[in-house]
Amino acid sequence: MRINILLYSLGAGGAERITSLLLDAMQKDCEIQLVLLEDICNYPIPKGIKKVILGTNSTQESGIKKLLKLPFLALKYKKLLKNCDVSLSLMTRPNYINILASLLCKSKKPRILISERSHPSLQYGYKNLSSKINKILIAFLYNKADKISANAPQNLQDLVQNFHISPNKTTLLLNFFNLDKIRAQSQEDSDLSKQILKHKAQGKYIFVSIGRLDNGKNHRLLIEAMKNFKEKASLFIIGGGELESTLKAQIHILNLESCVFLLGKSKKPYAPLSQADCFLFASNHEGFPNVLVESLALNVPIITTNCAPKEILAPKGEFLDSKKQCELAQGGIIIPLNSKEAMEFCMDFMLKHPNFFDKSSLYAQAKLFSQDTQLPYYKEWILNP
What we know:
By secondary structure, the protein is an alpha/beta fold. The model has no long low-confidence stretch (mean pLDDT 95). The chain has 16 helices and 15 strands. An 8-stranded mixed sheet has the order 10-9-8-11-12-15-14-13, with helices on both faces. Strands 3-2-1-4-5-6-7 form a 7-stranded parallel sheet, with helices on both faces.
């Protein structure tokens, strides 16, 4: 079977990591052509898989420019559909291009499969032109695909309820992980790990957070919460983004330079993550935050806002504090969105009870999302009509 896989790039991100694992897993069964909008490759591409760059694109382009380029990219991609049986795209803009290209095909066209990786109503819930246009495009185009997968139940429900996507076309495919590789890479030498270990040697409790520095990830809440723990704990934030200078200013204003550190982007975050006593996640909205499973795979308990699929942490229905809605889960603690009070309460709890979560239970939760467990569902979805 001849398959095209279309996405932004093979840079950092969940869809990119899933694609790299799919390339490895399916190259023996299929003839695969990888089509990227931008020539960024953080993952090795297996031999025998052809890589095609669809023009000169950049994630830094304005939303209007990206919109205007859609028909031209669809025309270019149409030429690559002639000799394939299945065209799979991941993420919103590649999904648009995939569907538009298929609509331009006059003769035989491949089966069109698209994968939604976010919660569209929240992702495009802002009062700006870009959000309005994306909502229109999703509602107009997605139903024209043959199959649609989403990586979290709430994402799937959102497509059906708010964008009127046919339930018969939808499938839930949870993200999957090579847990052995994550654990092996966590043992690699890392300057970031050495920086964290210096604070551990001083007796500090280590909080780590990973994510792009933007409004959606809400790192400002974590920094604000650290005011109460500056003598006892250190917070290390891995990631880059447009709010870097704003967050640095916040750290300075709150006089937290001795305990809050922006470490920048890292292609190898598992080594520093493995040094964490607790992982913090304050995001306002997510599709399927891979870093939560990656933390569990490294035996790191989590405090997270209620932004992620419940399957990841597995809430127990028990509360540390019912008023603050701090819910215990198999993999950590779940708190309400944007609640500094709840975040501070749970951070204090973890400082006072550092061995509350059993490490073997954390890893057992991560195993539910292992490659061996989830990959067969992906193969069946892709290969079977």
